[in-house]
């Protein structure tokens, strides 16, 4: 039997752990073959690849013992070009360009960084490239580190609005107990809700090899983040034949069903923004476009009040003076004022650049009354 959620997924984030990156070219080639095949079917694929520290260690003569944070950062800096080179090499066989994106925790904290990262990744996907994401280990510190790339991958899934997160590891999925200590452990094929009993099954990384960092524990946390955003997660073995495509079959890997919806997670995020610093007043045509789930174009804006940066939350005021929505502005207040009421084609001439046709993108709007995309208290 095949998993419908797999076939229906339009945007997939694939995360590859350090242990796989070290397994040699045939494993990497097999993963790339599957990604190229899915991309060829029109699916949008973002790759989150670990392995910079593991690949950088031997280059700097760092042995297999434990490393200080600074040594890990140095190893990551030395290993990252090798890692990207490996992906570039293997995707070149399919005529696909790769593109490196190094992200940090604040990409999910700062709305401006969030918008920029999302726009870059979507543009790369529109252009047919495979984005290869890793944490920017040089500027990550103990306090702000993700700790592992499983959660980074879940954040990236939220960022790009993925509907499936594939975590490829050195193990076939979640077992009902740590298989290193319990040889009788059984694979858990499906998880509908991640509760305490699921967390209790998961142990740490494989301390024997010392390569992975998060273990099953961080994969469950990642699946939890993804599930709340309406994204399913599958954990499977990256060293199997056709490692990703085989996960369509119900007998393979562990499948975690989504619990929330992408819309409700996004709505909660926008609605939870600090008090909006500004307001955009719009005309009746724009108000009905918003009610229909469309973006706010500059042509429908009548006035812009207050001081806000690109990425800040703004109140959207309808023609009768009441707040009808909250949104994340795609432009700062002064630029928004300059393009207010103008046509999309005029933006570049007015500002000297054109970022997006929308003043506030539909994905970043939450209506005050439940409608096309959920509701919030504006
Ligand atoms: N309940 C469990 N089911 C499966 N694997 C588990 C479990 N508990 C702990 N593990 C360990 O988690 C490891 C995978 O995590 P990790 O080493 O961080 O991999 P990666 O480098 O792929 O992120 C497995 O090799 C296994 O040793
Ligand atoms: N940024 C680090 C990520 C380390 C990490 O999370 O590793 P893993 O547990 O194998 O996914 C690296 O590339 O080495």
TrEMBL record:
Which keywords belong to this entry? Amino-acid biosynthesis, ATP-binding, Cytoplasm, Kinase, Nucleotide-binding, Proline biosynthesis, Transferase
Question: What is the protein's given name?
Answer: Glutamate 5-kinase
- Which Gene Ontology molecular function entries are recorded, alphabetically? ATP binding; glutamate 5-kinase activity; RNA binding
- Enzyme class at the top of the EC tree: transferase
Q: What's its job? A: Catalyzes the transfer of a phosphate group to glutamate to form L-glutamate 5-phosphate.
The subcellular location is: Cytoplasm
Among SMART domains, the record links this protein to: PUA
